[in-house]
Amino acid sequence: MNIALLASSLIIVILIAHNVKRQNKLKSRVESEFWAREHRANSVRRKSLDGLEYITIPLESFPTHILQQDRVVTECIETLESLTAQKIVNLTGYTNTDLKLEYGTANITALSEYDQNYTVLVRTLQKWADVLIEAGYPEEACVLMEFAVDTGTDISHTYYKLAEYYSSRGEDDRIRRLKGLAGALRCSSRDIILKHLGREYPHI
After folding, report:
1. How far apart are CA 38 and CA 45, in angstroms?
2. CB-CB contact of 147 with 125 (8 Å)
3. Which among 100, 119, 98 has a CA at the least distance from the CA of 42?
4. pLDDT tens digits, residue range 143-162?
5. d(Cα 154, Cα 191) in Å, to the nearest integer?
6. Phi/psi class of residue 94: alpha, beta or left (left: φ > 0; alpha: ψ in -120 to 50)?
7. pTM recorded for the entire structure
8. Closest by alpha carbon to 62, among 162, 116, 142, 166?
9. What 3-state class would DSSP assign to 127?
10. Are the C-beta atoms of residues 138 and 132 closer than 8 Å to each other?
């Protein structure tokens, strides 16, 4: 019995050691590939940014006339007004290495700024939309959230609130379209959003 137990223990130890060795080897290979890719990226010369999908904020089509005295709404509008003079690009899902390989190392600062502007944009839109929803203006909030999802926002709350609004109106086609937009995302929240929409609206 002791021999059998010892043999089993040895087998377990061997399996664990083998697994650890394999994981270390895999980790080493991944790190090696990363640094090789990073080295290539740092050698790429500056490329034109003219082909980027720059986002224009259609502030004139937003419900700026509603809740004009609300402090949060006012702050959101002011933030968006300041962004209209900035370059905005959704680069969610792209690493700095990806961007350097595509556009050159010299452009990484500008690209990071464009992407940060996008983050501020979609967060501000949802912040504004939440205030409108709370105040009883879901249709107006929908305008803001639809613009956000059309630009590829990865804020899950935006998809959930839009789906709730569509569902309340029996607009299954719009929920279906929302699922399609979520499925096209290049971010880690994509699967979470799709899982939630699939669970809440399984027959759409």
Report:
1. 14
2. yes
3. 100
4. 999 999 999 999 999 999 99
5. 11
6. beta
7. 0.80
8. 142
9. helix
10. yes
